[in-house]
Amino acid sequence: MKPGVLTFYRIMAYVTAVLLILLCAAVVLKYGHFVGWWAEGSGPQQFGQTWAFRIGVAHGWLYMVYLLVAVVATTQLRVPIGRMLLVLLAGTVPFGAFFAERKVVQWHELRMAGKPIVTPQRAAKSEESRA
Question: Are 31 and 48 in contact (CB under 8 A)?
Answer without folding.
Answer: yes
